[in-house]
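Pilot study result, target chain (85 residues):
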Amino acid sequence: MRLQDQQLARQLMRLRGDINKLKIEQTCHLHRRMLNDATYDLEERDELADLFCDSPLASSFSLSTPLKLIGVTKMNINSRRFSLC
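Predicted structure:
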């Protein structure tokens, strides 16, 4: 009985570790996609700014929607740290 309990405990611990690993991988993937989207948006704005000389300066410094959704603002974007797992 004790041996079975230990085996079940080990199996549950492995499953818990696997679930945590999957959660981390999913979060890293979502962050990577968000950063890629933000980079693409900024590059696209820079290209459009080159085409139109009279575009307002403030629009090139505005944040993309994915960054706004997680609370990154113009004031704190430099203090945020992102990691790509």
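One observation from the pilot: The mean pLDDT is 77. A full batch analysis is planned for the follow-on phase.
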